[in-house]
Design brief:
Layout: H1 3-14, E1 21-23, H2 30-36, E2 50-53, H3 57-69, E3 74-77, E4 93-96, E5 103-106, E6 111-114, H4 120-129, E7 132-133, H5 144-149, H6 157-160, E8 167-173, E9 179-183, H7 188-197, E10 207-214, E11 216-217, E12 222-229, E13 232-235, E14 240-243, H8 249-261, H9 265-268, E15 270-278, E16 280-281, E17 297-304, H10 307-317, E18 325-332, H11 341-344, H12 354-361, H13 392-402, E19 404-405, E20 420-424, H14 429-432
Parallel strand pairs: 2-4, 3-4, 16-19
Antiparallel strand pairs: 1-2, 5-6, 6-10, 7-11, 8-9, 8-10, 12-17, 12-18, 13-14, 15-17, 15-20
The structure holds flavin-adenine dinucleotide.
Flavin-adenine dinucleotide binds near residues 75, 76 and 116.
């Protein structure tokens, strides 16, 4: 008998709210508890006192009041992708919202009502079937809730901004357990609350049980592509991965910065992009020189248009960057309804997988890791924001120096250890068009 769980069930009965499924340790449902206590970052292993599988805002509200009354620590989880595991904890009451995964699309008002538990693979596929989209993230398994409240950078950011900027309403359970609907048309307090959840951080101002997000029309053709410089190559005799090619990273970085700052017609077709630079071992025989050091670099991009226009753009903008390889990773759009958007445009594209490295060892090209196999993924990550003027000369040098370190050992990749930085472009036509007043549309710093 688990006393906390019994008391929680009693609280539901006395509030006349249907009792949700509650999982706990040493119960008859141990296997399910062990499955649900896991979060995406397996670095963390928590043992919550109870996992409450909410399906309504009312069920979340009762749990909030209960934990407040009994001074119990509360956590909330939607997609479970929090890098620091803040969505769970040992001996906490964990509200799991993953079963709240409904989406209602209103094509006339151009909005979608989205519950917090849905993940991008399913969400983007449902939206694309109705020829609309929202500024989603890059990874198929991330949840809409934490992503949007944390800002929400992704493949559409250059054209449509971060996802938080498209949020026009929400339903929230507040700290006192009350349920509030907030919208842009509400009073001052309502608008302030809405502003705060638009990029102000997960679980800071309430538990969101529904987002209302503006949609945009899905283009006829979208291409997801990558450009790679200084590819990894396996050297069997040394049992190590080396990089092939010697394009200075500085050249790639400066070219990418120039491309993301462009707002001309062709550049507007590049609706989103990021640049990944893999760290490498600092060798004593090769003193660090920011002008010549070369790392494996991969630019990912989403292109609105056909392959010819994309190829022309790449030829023009990257002609001075030495040898590179262009790969088309997927297609979607109104003309590609037969292809599921979530299968073709989404992936875990920000990291090298051990699986890809094994393919490279066999002399085969790496293929994107299937999203549903995107775990376990123990990792450590941190974020920084570049100020509006960009990295600057010193910033670039420091960045490249930090990616050339004696702490990155030559054999790391063989062990499945990867170190890299990803630069995401939060710039482009959307931000160019913004007036100074509109810049406060979201709480994202
Ligand atoms: C593989 C991977 C790829 C990623 N790619 C991107 C990317 O392309 N772009 C990007 O911007 N970010 C990306 N991220 C970061 C990601 O957006 C954040 O980790 C985000 O918080 C995950 O949201 P979630 O709902 O899955 O996580 P959760 O762990 O469930 O929640 C994250 C935080 O929000 C809180 N929270 C969750 N649900 C609610 C709710 N309903 N109401 C109030 N608070 C809530 C949690 O308590 C926690 O503090 C990525 C992360 C990973 C692991």
């Amino acid at each position: 008998m688990n006393t906390i769980v019994e008391k929680l069930r009693a609280a539901y009965r006395s509030a006349a709210v249907p009792v949700p499924e509650i999982l706990y340790n040493c119960s008859a449902n141990q296997e399910k508890y062990d499955q649900y206590r896991q979060i995406f970052n397996r670095w963390f292993q928590f043992m919550p006192a109870a996992i409450v599988l909410c399906v309504t805002a009312e069920q979340a509200s009762v749990a909030v009041k209960f934990t407040s009354k009994h001074a119990l620590p509360l956590r909330v989880r939607s997609g479970g992708h929090d890098h620091e595991g803040e969505c769970s904890g040992t001996d906490t009451i964990l509200l799991d919202l993953s079963k709240m995964d409904k989406v209602e699309i209103d094509p006339v008002r151009r909005i979608a009502r989205i519950q917090p538990g849905i993940r991008f693979k399913e969400l983007t596929t449902q939206l694309a079937k109705k020829d609309v989209m929202i500024p989603h993230g890059t990874c198929a398994t991330v949840g809409i809730a934490g992503y949007t409240m944390g800002g929400g950078w992704g493949p559409w950011t250059r054209k449509h901004g971060m996802c938080c900027e498209s949020v026009v309403g929400a339903t929230l359970v507040l700290g006192d357990g009350s349920i509030r609907k907030v919208s842009m048309d509400g009073d001052h307090a309502e608008r302030e609350l809405l502003w705060a959840i638009k990029g102000g951080g997960g679980f800071s101002y309430g538990i969101v049980t529904e987002f209302v997000i503006e949609t945009f029309e899905l283009p006829a053709e979208m291409i997801k592509f990558q450009i790679e410089w200084n590819e990894f190559q396996y050297v069997p005799e040394n049992r190590l991965f080396a990089i092939r090619g010697a394009t200075p990273t500085l050249t790639v970085l400066q070219t990418w910065e120039k491309v993301i700052a462009s707002t001309d017609l062709a550049a507007s077709q590049l609706v989103g992009t990021n640049l990944k630079i893999s760290a490498k071992h600092a060798s004593e025989n090769e003193p660090f020189n920011p002008h010549t050091v070369s790392h494996n670099c991969v630019m990912y991009g989403y292109w609105e248009g056909d392959e010819n226009s994309l190829q022309k753009f790449i030829d023009q903008r990257f002609k001075d960057t030495g040898r590179y390889t262009v790969t088309i990773l997927g297609k979607a759009g109104r003309d590609y309804r037969h292809l599921l958007y979530g299968d073709h445009l989404m992936s875990s594209w920000d990291r090298y997988s051990f699986h890809n490295m094994n393919l490279l060892k066999q002399g085969l090209q790496g293929i994107p890791f299937p999203p549903d196999e995107d775990q376990p993924a123990p990792h450590k990550i941190t974020s920084r924001l570049v100020n509006a003027d960009g990295l600057g000369e010193q910033g670039r040098y420091k960045l490249l120096e930090s990616l050339t370190s004696p702490l990155v050992l030559p054999g790391n990749k063989d062990l499945g250890l990867f170190t890299y930085i990803t630069l995401g472009a939060i710039t482009g036509n959307y931000y160019q068009r913004m007036t100074p007043g509109q810049k406060t549309k979201s709480a994202f710093p």
